[in-house]
Amino acid sequence: MLVENIMRRVSIALLSVLFVAACSDGGGAEVAPVYAANPDSPYAAMLAPCARESGDQRSCRLSQLPLLGMSSPSPDKAAVMARVATTHPWMAQRFSELLDVLPSDILSMMRSVTAIIIGSDVRPSFYWSLTGAIYLDPAGLWLTVEEKRTIDPAPDYRSGFGSGLAYRVINRYVFNNTYAWYGYSLSDESERTLDDIVLPTARLLYHELAHAADFLPPDRMGGFNPTWTVLDATRYIENQGLQLSQALQGSQPLNAQLLFDLAAVNFFGQTPSDAQLALRAEDISAQFAPDGANDDYAYASRFEDVAMLFEELMMAMNFGVERDVAVAPRPAEGEPHIVDWGQRRRITDPHVIERVRLVGERILPDAPISAFLDSYGPPKSLTRGITWNGNLDPDNPSKAWHVDAGEQVIARDEVR
C-alpha cells in the first residue's frame, strides 16, 4: 500500500492544493508536494494542507486533523502510518520498516503529534507548534544511491554559525567504546543497511517527540476542544503553565548566562562580540561543567533543554548507547579536537541527574526512569589534553594521533 495507488495519491494531493488555496491569501513559499503513506486513511486528504510547511500555513482545527492520541489513545503502527506523508514513496516504506524495529515507547509518544512529514527538502528536522507535526530530514533514512539522489543536498542553513569562535562543544554517541554509528555522504556512491540507521533515527525521534510531548502532553488532551486549532491547544498548555519545559525551568533552571548568550551565536546566527571571540575553551568548560545541561544546545531554548536530556536518557535506557560531550579549542582544518573538558554519561552528574529524572518521568510516567538512573553508574571524565578519539575509551585514553572529523553526524533540529 505504501508504494502503490499512485492515482489515489494524486487525487489526495489535488484535494490538498484546493484546501490550501481556499484557506490562504497567496504568496506562500513553494514546497515539494507530499502524499499520504496510506491513501485510505481517514486523514489522508488533510495531511498536506494541515501539516506541510509553507509560507502561508494555517493551523488546522483538531476536528480536521486531531492529535494522534485523540483518535488512538494507544496507537499502533497502522495508526502512526495513517499520519505519515512523504515526497517520495521510499521514505514512507523506510519509516514503516523502522517502526517494526524501534522501541514501542516511540509509538506511544506519537500521541502528541498530528502528522509525520518526511520531505526531500526538509533540513533540518523540526517540530512545529503551529501544526503539531514533526518534520524529518530523509538524509537519515536512505539506504541506496537511488534513494539518496532524491534528497536535496543543500547544507543546513546554520552550518556556519559560530565558526569564528575559538572553541567548540562536541558530542557523540558510543557503544562499547566505539562510535555507535557513522556519517554517510549524500554525494558519493556509498550504501547502507537498515541496521545502520536504527540508532540515529531513534535518537532523532526521541528528540522530536520530546518536543511534541512538551507542547501537547497526552494527559491533557481530554481537555482540548475539537473546535480549537492546534495553536489554540498549544497556547492553552503554555498559558496554564503546563509545559514540561516550564516546570523544568521553574524548578531547576540553567544558570550559565554566558552560554545563553553564546547560543544566540551558535544556533541563531548572531554576530559574536569581541568579548565572545576572545573566549577560550577553558572559559566555556568553567561555565558548562557546574551547570545542569547535558549539551550546549540546551541553552538555545527551554524546549531544547528538555529534548536533549530526554534523547540521551532514552538512548542509554533502550539501547545501552552512551553519550559523550566535551569542550575543545577549535582546531585548524584537518587537525583533531583536543579535549579541554568532557564527560561520558553526563546525565548522571549530580548537577544533571534530577533534571533528567523530572523530564523522563513526566514524558514516560510508566517507564522505570528512576530505577535506570540510579543503577546507570556515575559519569566518566574524559582526559584533558588528549584528542577526542583518543578518549573513546575513557578508562584507557590514548595519546595517539586521531583525526576525528566527520565520523558521526548528529544533526541539530529546530522548534518552530
UniProtKB/TrEMBL annotation:
Organism domain of life: Bacteria
Protein name stated in the entry: Uncharacterized protein
Lineage of the organism: Bacteria, Pseudomonadati, Pseudomonadota, Gammaproteobacteria, Chromatiales
